[in-house]
C-alpha cells in the first residue's frame, strides 16, 4: 500500500505563549517554537502502522517554505520512507483551496492508494482534506479514528460522531481520510532516527515541477482572506488566569474550592 500523508509546520502551543500582533494582522511569530501539527502526527503514525501490516511505503509531504523541511525530516525519522517539500514563493498566502490545489498536483505525480491528512490544522478550518478529495474525485471520510485493511480495494473505517458515538463504514481505495487524534499513540522520535535522515535529500517541487499555474494559488487566488486577529473582550464576571500552566492550574483549583465547585 502506497500512502501519502500531508503534514504542516505549526507553532507548538505547548511551548509558546501565543499573542496577537499589535496590528491584528497575525500572531507574534518572533521566537516561536514550531513543530508538526498534532493531527498530522497521528496520521503519519497510522500510515506507518498500516504499512507495517500490509506492506508498502509512506511518503510525507508538506506545503511551506524551506523551514517546513524540518517537519518532513521529523516524520521520516519517525518511520516514513520518503519526504517531499512543496515550496514556491507563488504558494505564499494560499487559502484552503489553494493548498488543496498544490497537494492535488503532487498526488497526481505519484501512484497512491491512500492519502491521509490531519482532521484539523492550526487555523481550525478542517477543509483541505475534503477539498483535496473533491478535486481528485476520490471517496472521503473525516474525523477517522479507526482503520482496518479489508483487502487491496477496501478499508473499514471508524468515525467519531456527535455524542461520543462511533460509526463504521467501508470505503473504496484509493481514498482520502482526515485523521482524528487518539486513533493511536504516536511513537517517540529518537536521536538515532533523526541522525539517520539528517543527510537524506528531500525533493523540493514548485510551480514548474508540479505544473501548477502561479495565478491559481497564493494570496492573489485566495477566495478566503484573514481580516483580523483579536482577543475577545472579557464578559461580565470573567477573569483570565495568567502564568505558567502549573500556575494557572493551581489558581483554577483554588477558585473552584472557594466557590464550592470541588472540595
- What is the H/E string? EEEHEHEHEHEEEEHEHHH
Number of strands: 11
Indicate the percent of residues in helices.
25-40%
- The name of the CATH architecture of the largest domain is 3-Layer(aba) Sandwich
Give the number of domains. 2
What's the end-to-end separation, in Å?
54 Å
Low-pLDDT ranges: none
- Quote the CATH topology of the largest domain: Rossmann fold
Number of helices: 8
Strand order of the largest sheet: 9-8-7-10-6-1-4-5-11
How do the helices and strands line up, and which of them pair or pack?
Layout: E1 2-7, E2 9-11, E3 34-36, H1 38-54, E4 57-63, H2 69-78, E5 82-86, H3 96-108, E6 114-118, H4 128-136, E7 140-149, E8 154-161, E9 165-172, E10 175-179, H5 191-197, E11 204-205, H6 207-210, H7 218-221, H8 245-258
Parallel strand pairs: 1-4, 1-6, 4-5, 5-11, 6-10, 7-10
Antiparallel strand pairs: 2-3, 7-8, 8-9
Helix pairs in contact: 2-5, 3-4
